[in-house]
Amino acid sequence: MARIWVFHGPNLNLLGLREPEHYGTRTLAEINQDMLGTAHQKGINVECRQTNHEGDLIDWIQDLTPDDFLILNPGAWTHTSYAIRDAIGGVKVPTLEVHLSNIHAREAFRANSVIAPVCIGQISGLGAEGYVLAMRYAIDYQLRRNK
Ligand code: DQA
């Protein structure tokens, strides 16, 4: 059964406590809950996961099927991980990159995403609301595909 997956990368388990000036005060559990509410109303299957281990994320991406959709915040791997980029490129699952902060308005190293070229697009700087918008897009995408 097709699913919308939400994968959160390293340190995002600390949301709520971690640098609230950049990432806001909502916890990861609250952010996931906001997204699930939107999807369940439409009868769509969603699963959210977080990991601090790059290999786990690569395994999860490899296990996706082409009719799935991925919402991904790769955290700091955004700027470094060719392995995650290659995994997404390999499975060809439509992927939307999400960042709470505006990665283009912070330190220079954050402005480059090595993941973005294999994604449909990127939402960056809209805080927790960015995830809800991403979920809305993912739902429309999946409903359009299944017509
Ligand atoms: C982040 C931005 C990254 O640069 C940072 O390493 C994170 C969070 C964001 O959501 O704004 O861990 O992906």
Please tell me about this protein's structure.
- The protein is α/β, with parallel strands linked by helices and 147 residues long.
- The chain has a single domain, classed as Rossmann fold.
- It has a five-stranded parallel beta sheet, covered by helices on one side.
- α4 links the parallel β3 and β4.
- The two termini are 15 Å apart.
- The mean pLDDT is 95.
- The structure holds 1,3,4-trihydroxy-5-OXO-cyclohexanecarboxylic acid.
- 1,3,4-trihydroxy-5-OXO-cyclohexanecarboxylic acid binds next to loops.
* Assembly type: single chain
In this entry the ligands are: 1,3,4-trihydroxy-5-OXO-cyclohexanecarboxylic acid
CATH class group: Alpha Beta
Cα-atom Rg, whole angstroms?
A: 14 Å
Kindly list the characteristics that best describe this protein.
147 residues; alpha/beta; globular
Q: What's the helix and strand layout?
A:
Elements: E1 4-8, H1 20-23, H2 28-41, E2 46-50, H3 54-62, E3 69-73, H4 82-91, E4 95-99, E5 121-124, H5 129-145
Parallel strand pairs: 1-2, 1-3, 3-4, 4-5
Bound molecules: 1,3,4-trihydroxy-5-OXO-cyclohexanecarboxylic acid.
1,3,4-trihydroxy-5-OXO-cyclohexanecarboxylic acid is lined by residues 11, 73, 75-76, 78, 99-101, 103, 110.
Q: How do you describe this structure in short?
A:
The protein is of the alpha/beta class and 147 residues long.
